[in-house]
Design goal:
The protein has 260 residues and is mainly α. 53% of the residues lie in helices and 7% in strands. The longest helix is centred in the middle third of the chain and has 31 residues.
């Protein structure tokens, strides 16, 4: 079932997949600060894990949330000074300051503000998906929902696509020092083609354990669409799900409402 436009159900499915990939769909993770501890990453928060170091609107949102929670000015200054920086070692400040930020993010008002920011991120991701679809169409190709969901998960991590768009247009692309198989004109780009590309991405090769979560996120998104996920294949099978990870698609879709 190739995708030619972004529908509301696909948007909701992408959100479900991202929420699982970033937070395992756990509000206890989403509405507090987290630390990837990789490279120049900073503190992140929200169901889509906005990075307060890499993305200024995320830092601005934390400032508004903390002000609304009546955080003292001196404490707020300390917190913002830390959150502006890359934090590859995690939180370097006082535990009380971290607890205060987490309390603000987890409040009713804080959660509403976080959800609003997540919708802004999701809007931007939908624009990037439209670009992916257009690039494939330029090569006479189509993209299946499973591949689109996987692409969105990666774009949320890496930012607006460049090499990916060239590959979708059928152009030669080299990743990790080797050529990615060129897409034939008119090809249907499904999960196998996407994973072939994904597994050549330098970050994915340099950081073990990326494939399992990618596959599981695609599975969550496909179930949210009411579709069976494509078989992963024996070599690519995701790890067994825990009971906590066996998500109900209807409940998940209701956690964050797609923008109208």
């Amino acid at each position: 079932m190739p995708v030619t436009t972004i529908s509301d159900p696909l948007r909701a499915a992408v959100l479900a997949a991202l929420y699982w990939h970033e937070c395992r769909s756990d509000p206890a993770i989403a509405y507090r600060l987290s630390f990837a501890r990789i490279g120049a990453s900073g503190a992140s928060f929200g169901p889509l894990q906005a990075d307060s170091h890499a993305w200024p609107p995320a830092l601005a949102a934390i400032e508004r949330i903390c002000r609304a929670a009546a955080m003292p000015a001196e404490q707020l200054g300390r917190v913002l000074g830390i959150l502006r920086r890359a934090l590859p070692q995690g939180w370097p400040g006082a535990a009380a300051d971290l607890a205060a930020v987490d309390a603000a993010l987890g409040s009713t008002q804080g959660r509403a503000a976080v959800d609003q920011l997540m919708q802004t991120i999701l809007d931007g991701l939908m624009v990037q998906l439209e670009r992916c679809i257009a690039a494939a169409v330029a090569n006479g190709s189509t993209i299946t929902p499973a591949a689109l969901i996987g692409m969105t998960v990666w774009i949320n991590q890496d930012g607006p696509p460049t090499d990916l768009l060239e590959w979708l247009r059928g152009e030669p692309v080299e990743l990790s020092g080797e050529a990615v198989p060129v897409l034939a004109r008119g090809a249907e780009i499904g999960q196998p083609a996407w994973l072939s590309y994904y597994q050549r991405i330098p970050f994915v090769r340099q950081h073990a354990g990326q494939l399992g979560p990618m596959l599981q996120a695609i599975t969550v998104g496909m179930k949210a669409l009411g579709l069976e996920p494509p078989p992963a294949g024996a070599a690519l099978a995701p790890p067994p799900q825990s009971e906590a990870d066996k998500l109900n698609a209807a409940e998940l879709a209701g956690t964050l409402k797609p923008a109208a």
